[in-house]
Amino acid sequence: MKFLLNLYRRAVALPGERLDHEEFLATAGQAGELVSAHVFADPSISAVVWARDGVVTVTEGPYSQTPDHVAGQYVVDCESRERAVELAALIAGGQVGGVEVRPLMDSAGMEM
Fold first, then answer.
1. Do the beta carbons of residue 20 and residue 7 sit within 8 Å?
2. 91 with 5: CB under 8 angstroms?
3. pLDDT reported for residue 15
4. Radius of gyration of the chain from Cα atoms?
5. Is 17 helix (H, G, I), strand (E, B) or coil?
6. Vertex 111, ends 91 and 28: CA angle to 5°?
7. 65-85 burial, b for 16+ CB within 10 Å, e for fewer?
8. Domains of the chain
9. What's the predicted TM-score (pTM) here?
10. Distance of CA 78 to the CA centre of its chain
11. In the prediction, which pLDDT does 64 show?
């Protein structure tokens, strides 16, 4: 099954904060479970495109005004949700913020 691990972080990092995913990368990489990884640019340079009642609107900057944002993501392919949570725990231990574990679906709505 494939899972998306969304990495949440504070929009403004505190002095000394760093991302440390070495244990996760080593574990998931050696097990052949790491499919892809992406780090996102600062949300202040993003754009949000909305379509309402046939009118398209573009808003500059982050979508939400929350203290946390999605800072990156990993896609893993592992045997179970429990294993995906174990891998996410390796990430969460080395960062400030949370890690969302979400199953990926194929076009028919079935878990991949």
1. no
2. yes
3. 59
4. 16
5. coil
6. 30
7. eeeebbbbbbbbbbeeeebbe
8. 2-103 (3.30.70.1060)
9. 0.77
10. 16
11. 65
